[in-house]
Design a protein that fits this description.
This protein is mainly β and 251 residues long. It has a single domain (2-248), classed as Beta Barrel (Porin). The chain has 1 helix and 11 strands, in the order αβββββββββββ. It has an 8-stranded antiparallel β-barrel with strand order 1-2-3-4-5-9-10-11.
Amino acid sequence: MKRLLYQFALVLVSCFIISSAYAQHATYIGVQGGISIPNLTAGSDNQNPLANGYSSRLGADFGVLATFQVKKTFSIQAGIDYSEQGGKHNGLQAFTDPNPMGPAFLYANFNNSAHLNYLLIPVMARFDFKLSQKLNLYVEAGGFAGFLLSAKSVTSGNSPVYADSLGQEQVEPSESFDSTSSIKNSINTFNAGIIGAVGLTYNLGAGKIFIEGGGNYGFINIQKYAADGTNYSGAAVAHIGYEYALHCKKK
């Protein structure tokens, strides 16, 4: 964690030096919070049933940010966010057969939710468009580095066990799937991808409040082992926040 904070500090210092040299307007620091609607996308050539069939779940997304206004309509923004990602797979689905002499997969009808918590460090270019004296529209986009903080699988339900994906060949009577287990050792600790948002700001005293909607998508397969298939993490997010002006150069 200390190393991550050190790397983030270097990003902020670099942005501050660049923006201080060219800035014509304010430098802002702020906080934001909201919801994350993540999902796990299977690779296009993925044939592993363990990685297929995920849908979205709800999570939290919040953090701090710094916006360096280079020109009146252009800024550089860096931040650090806690982002809950993952996905859920409910219904008839595959699971690994615990018997090494049995088939690769068995099937059962249960609820399965993957909770992946990341620290994201985004750096984005931002463009502002004035709508009125106090209201601005902005668009921002860039990239992020992601670091896995924790990962767990939460399953629940009772179901017979089947040998086939259609649930027609029962091989075991009903059993419980209520379980919570750490899967951090099977998930890659680093991710990187694209991030962006569209939002509105409203000037309020020395700062401004904002509301935005956007998303992020990782380009690195989160699965560490080939036996687990191929999945890519991503999320739609919605934030509300506040930015405070640290300084403002004269025009």
